[in-house]
Amino acid sequence: MGLYIKELEDQLFEVHKFVERMVMTLTVMGFFSINREFLTYLQVLRRRDFGSSLGELGLTLITMGTHEEKTGEEEAATTSKSFHDLGSCCDHLAINIQEQVKDEMEKTVFVLEEWLRIMEGAKEALRVHGATVAQSLAFMSDYEKKDRALKQGVPQGKANITESDVNEARRKVEESKQRAELLGQRLREEMMRLKRMKAVELRTLLFRFVEIQIKNGFVVEEETEIGG
């Protein structure tokens, strides 16, 4: 019986260590991932403001070109065309930036919300798992007391401890241990799924980033040539 109790205690201790590692892993992953996505979101907001300013500049240049054309002065037509071309270049770049920002902002917000959802789900799973482990330890303590009382013939409370009481306490220990092991396995599977999902998502984000930069690089080059 002592060996049986020792084995159960060792198993529960391993489960406890696993839960501690899980909490630390989730905390670190959650901090760096959410922090990274939040910084990306701030960068997108800055590009959005830049796009708006660029659009306003384009409108101002086009207005100046129209005004210059109405002056009737020498070379007014050439100056007006330069203002219009430069204003159109700014306007096209602003539109392109705003489209890019809209796409990236939607994706960034989605990633942030997804991470928060995953973290909340993981925390809830850990809470349930921790409660189950705590219950197992309580059942183990009760079982040890009743088993010791039965062997020593010492009454616990108002009634003597019977073999049936000890068997019932042992059954509760076994059931709670099985629940803890099942929840632990589910947590491991969830962590593996999360790691695989984030790896795929990271590759997708990198390819998407390169694609956007190449696309917008060509647009900037074309618009700059038009403006020149």
UniProtKB/TrEMBL annotation:
Gene Ontology MF annotations: phosphatidylinositol binding
Stretches assigned to coiled coil: 159-197
Domain Sorting nexin/Vps5-like C-terminal residue range list: 46-215
This protein's UniProt keywords: Coiled coil
GO terms for cellular component: endosome
InterPro entries: AH/BAR_dom_sf, Vps5_C
Top-level taxon: Eukaryota
Chain ranges passing through the membrane: none
PANTHER family registered for this protein in UniProt: FI18122P1, SORTING NEXIN
Protein's name according to its UniProt entry: Sorting nexin/Vps5-like C-terminal domain-containing protein
